[in-house]
Design a protein that fits this description.
It is flat, with a radius of gyration of 29 Å. By secondary structure, it is of the alpha/beta class. Strands 3-4-5-6-2-1-7 form a 7-stranded mixed β-sheet. It has a 6-stranded mixed β-sheet with strand order 9-10-8-11-12-13, with helices on both faces. It folds into 3 domains: 5-110, Gyrase A, domain 2 (2-Layer Sandwich); 129-210 and 385-444, Up-down Bundle (Four Helix Bundle (Hemerythrin (Met), subunit A)); 217-376, Rossmann fold. β11 (302-308), α11 and β12 (329-335) form a beta-alpha-beta unit. Helices cover 44% and strands 18% of the residues. The chain has helices at residues 27-32, 92-104, 114-121, 127-138, 142-152, 155-179, 190-208, 211-219, 233-241, 284-299, 315-325, 364-376, 389-407, 413-431, 437-444; strands spanning 5-8, 15-23, 35-37, 52-57, 63-72, 83-90, 108-109, 221-226, 259-265, 268-274, 302-308, 329-335, 353-355. The longest helix is centred in the middle third of the chain and has 25 residues, at 155-179.
Length: 451
């Protein structure tokens, strides 16, 4: 078994409950040195998976908390090793003193993600499941949490397993015919496997098509509010955020830098940037703000053009519209719908145009639903989709290798099998079957200590 590790798994902030987590050889014996059960029972003899009431001691043997502890017996634990948790009050001083006592009892500090890494190495979690643990912790929307939970349960791994197994069967049949020519084994015929290769490639292509939806679920959508000064961009950001995030005045040019806020529109998280008004100016500070506005618009996945519906469009409006139209996706907002209108929706050259009022909130719900439809996608939110670039790149390489295998069907079986084995190796990088140690280390560096 691995060396005993310990960490606070509930973070460094003051909380109602704090958890000291251990895993590895000698786990129960270490806990016995810092935890005294009220019943007098030895912790190592206590029933597994049952909370035991007792007292937590510091490294000098002084009581520091009344708490509960529970032990987990290998292999029926998160890591697959003997494990334990001490659940106490979440005062940072109590947790620090308890952790120091555990170190004195023989544990060493856990590294970032070491508990989950051990779960992966011990076969308790596949690599997609292990990565999804961090996605679940970082989830910012209900849909993101549901999808990450599905991946933790193995939904993506189950989607890949039949494809991988079909390729294994193809390779094993070829090698069986090659290695045992005297046995009664069905002859290996390349044309007979064309359909199987097409089917496997098609399933990988469908999986690759889910990445846009998965990326939005995990990271949200970068969006920028773009327009000339005083059209209500900052007021719109405040209205969408639900609080006064940005200072709003009637003075043009108040916003001189980009201001970011995360906004939830339906099930879609927008990483929304309020920008300085687009106009020509001699003010060096405002000029710098305008440059940043243009950069924000150019880098946004969604550019939201905003104009003042109570005033006719100007040259500055048209300059801002041109910036927005260059973005991958763009929409138009005619703000100040509560005032007499001087702008018609048909004057804005965007596929979607909405009349809204940042002051009254009119039209914002319709706009929110449209953004949700624009980025929501049709892929299921059940954990069976690709959500990170590492997974996407590996499946992309696997799909390309199967494409080459299909092209090689007119050549020799060896040429086909080389590409099939390359596809299997790439798929193994997703599940963890063939992943390199340096990639594994980089994955678990994302985790916090204690997880």
């Amino acid at each position: 078994m691995a060396h005993l590790i310990a960490a606070v798994s509930t973070g460094s902030q003051r909380t109602a409950i704090g958890i000291l987590r251990l895993s590895g050889e000698g786990c129960a014996q270490a806990v016995e040195k810092v935890f005294l059960a009220k019943s007098g029972i030895s912790f190592s003899q206590a029933p597994a998976r049952k909370l035991i009431l007792g007292t937590l001691l510091d490294c000098r043997g002084r009581p520091i908390d009344q708490c509960v502890a529970v032990r987990f017996q290998a292999p029926n634990s998160y890591t697959g090793e003997d494990g334990a948790e001490i659940q106490c009050h979440g005062a940072p001083a109590v947790l620090a003193a308890g952790l120091e006592a555990l170190y004195r009892a023989g544990a060493r500090p856990a590294q970032r993600g070491e508990f989950t890494k051990r779960a992966f190495l011990n076969g308790r979690l596949g690599l997609t499941q292990a990565e999804a643990v961090m996605d679940l912790i970082d989830a910012e929307t209900p849909d993101a949490a549901v999808n990450a939970a599905g991946q933790v349960e193995g939904a993506l791994q189950r989607r890949l397993a039949p494809v991988y197994q079909e390729l294994v069967d193809l390779c094993s049949h070829f090698h069986a015919v090659l290695d045992y020519p005297d046995e009664e084994i069905d002859e290996f015929s390349l044309p007979a496997y064309a359909g199987a290769l097409e089917s496997c490639r098609g399933r990988l292509q469908k999986l690759l098509a889910t990445y846009d939806r998965g990326r939005v679920l995990k990271n949200g959508v970068s969006a920028a509010l773009v327009g000339r000064p005083n059209v209500g961009k900052s007021s719109l950001l405040n209205a969408l955020a639900g609080f006064d995030r940005v200072i709003v005045t009637d003075i043009p040019g108040t916003t001189r830098d980009t201001v970011e806020e995360s906004v939830l529109l339906g099930s879609v998280r927008l990483r929304l940037t309020d920008t300085a008004g687009i106009r020509s100016t001699a003010d060096p500070l405002e000029k710098l703000g305008v440059e940043r506005s243009k950069a924000a618009a150019e880098g946004a996945e969604l550019a939201i053009f905003v104009c003042d519906g109570a005033r006719p469009l100007t040259a500055e409006d048209r300059e801002a519209m041109a910036l927005c139209l260059a973005a991958p996706k763009s929409v138009g907002l005619i703000n100040k719908a509560d005032l007499p209108q001087a702008v018609e929706p048909k004057e804005l050259p965007f596929p979607l145009v909405f009349s809204v009022s940042a002051r009254t909130g009119a039209g914002l719900e319709v706009f929110s639903r449209a953004v949700e439809e624009l980025f929501g996608g049709s892929a299921p939110v059940d954990g069976s989709i690709l959500t990170n670039p590492r997974q996407f790149d590996a499946i992309r390489r696997a799909e390309a290798a199967l494409g080459r295998a299909l092209e090689a069907l007119d050549l020799t079986p060896d040429a086909v099998l080389t590409d099939v084995e390359e596809a299997m190796e790439a798929m193994g990088e997703v599940t963890g079957a063939t992943v390199r140690e340096d990639i594994t280390a980089r994955i678990f560096e994302r985790f916090c200590v204690g997880k």
